[in-house]
Fold:
Amino acid sequence: MIDAAQMDHLASLARLELTPDERATMTQDLVRVLGYFEQLSEVNTDGVEEMQRPVNLVNVLRDDVPGEAFPVSVIAALAPEMQDGLIRVPRTVEAD
Structure:
């Protein structure tokens, strides 16, 4: 089902660096998971209504009431670094 090139591509997409043993184990696990999906596709679902979830969920939300804001001096004392009145954080996304 899954060949080495596909597994390498998936590992690349997931940004995983796999050893040969890990790659073999992951390939076997993925083949097993895909096998379960094949079994599910064989199930007769005629007359079964589609649903998003097996239970009805209701969002219970509280009112969004603004509270007291912390003074900038408190925030500045807690922040690792401030710049122009803003909290400076390390870059998390690389720009090409």
Q: What stands out?
A: The chain has a mean pLDDT of 89. Residues 23 and 59 are 41 Å apart (CA to CA). The longest strand covers residues 82-83.
